[in-house]
Amino acid sequence: MTGAMRATLYRAMGAMACAALLAIGGFAAAQPAQTDEARLFEAIGEGKELVAEGILVRGKVDVNARNAERETPLHRAVEKGMPQLVKTLLARKPDLRARSATGETSLHLAGLHDNPLFVELLLAAGADAKVRNDDGETALHWAAMTGNPQTVQRLLLAGVDPNVKDIRGNTALHGAADGGHVDVVKLLAGRIVEPKAKNRDGKSAEDLARGRGHADLAKMLAGVAPGVAPGVAPGAGFRTIDIDDPNHPTRNRP
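Predicted structure:
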């Protein structure tokens, strides 16, 4: 259960308890009117895509409204895997740069799905494929960590640099190796300039795979030669934005 869903549940339980107490005392329980935005978040959280669609169609909903986690309805619809609702929201031109409390855009959440449709919809609407969260992770990091090869392939085609490191020094290859995702490792291996690169804990992707018991994958990684990302000249190098860099997304968040 997500934080947003827990918050919704607690609010509902509190309202019922208050109503019961007022009824016992002989008073009418006057409930505050729920906004269209609150109803929309609630419907999405409960997995009611058609109800959410109806709220959007009938009401004047602010598609850039935020919940307690600073997520927009688009964040939640993508996270819950609601393709039609995502299309409806995108038609209303939401802010694709909007970040959650921890810096994720909707594209990060799209990386959690094995179906690349959500990434494709967001990219077609103008989402920044290279955006990073507060931990320095791209949507590619998220897709690699969760083992979604088709989504990884789509993000690579969109120009996401697989050599980007998060604030812990992990590339997408580290995440794929740690999860034992062989298909993702195969997609990334030839595009990683430094496949033996170590993170801030001193571990390479091979080390992580071996530590997780993925012996065959560790063996595969041991034989990976340095690669070059498509369209990048050998030796050109890649710029990694540190958390303290003024150009880091946390310094310029909508």
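Summary: The two ends are 27 Å apart (CA to CA).
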